[in-house]
Amino acid sequence: MKNFSLVVFLPALLTVIIACSLQIDALSCSPSGTIKGRKAPHGQCNRENDSDCCVQGKLYPTYTCSPRVTGDTKATLTLNSFQKGGDGGGPSECDNHYHDDDTPVVALSTGWYNGGSRCLNKIRISANGRSVEAMVVDECDSTMGCDDEHDYQPPCPNNIVDASKAVWKALGVPKDNWGDLDITWSDA
């Protein structure tokens, strides 16, 4: 009888531990602070790809973390130009280069970027019944924003995969739907 109780008890205990762990993961990525929006000087906020500009006085949450990466991490895909003069700002953080919009590249929210540990590695992005591999070349800064360095754009949320036009094309998303898309991603 003792062995039977253990066989029944251990799987139940394991289920509780996993459920608590998932709840802790979800709760452990709370905003780390806020940034007060500053209005960009005239002509200083690049609105390409429908990018947002900071609103004077608005408080924007900042994050030093992102949700835990799994084999099927939920995220929001956004559109970014990594070309010189594009809404991505300066050269990419990982290699100090600009990247053509026809190249599948991405920037990841600060927590997922993880201090550059994913630099120049590929991730697999899935949505719309398709998947594509893209190279991580930059950070979508979740800790700073609303300044010249960040093109007077707000900090990124903590769940962003900011992608070039090539990624959107490969996923077969109609151009008039480009902007925000629910996706899953994993390390390739």
Draw up the topology in text.
Layout: H1 2-27, E1 33-36, E2 59-62, E3 73-79, E4 105-109, H2 110-113, E5 122-127, E6 130-140, E7 160-163, H3 165-170, E8 180-187
Parallel strand pairs: 3-7, 4-6
Antiparallel strand pairs: 1-2, 3-8, 4-7, 5-6, 5-8
Compute the number of strand runs: 8
Low-confidence spans: 6-27
- Rounded Rg: 19 Å
Shape: globular
Distance between the termini: 47 Å
Which structural category fits the helices and strands?
Answer: alpha+beta
Protein described:
The chain is of the alpha+beta class. It is built from 3 helices and 8 strands, in the order H-E-E-E-E-H-E-E-E-H-E. It has helices at residues 2-27, 110-113, 165-170, and strands at residues 33-36, 59-62, 73-79, 105-109, 122-127, 130-140, 160-163, 180-187. The strands form 2 sheets. It has a 6-stranded mixed barrel. Strands 1-2 form a two-stranded antiparallel ribbon. Strand 5 (122-127) and strand 6 form a beta hairpin. The chain is globular and about 40 Å long. The relative contact order is 0.21. The model is unreliable at 6-27 (pLDDT under 50).
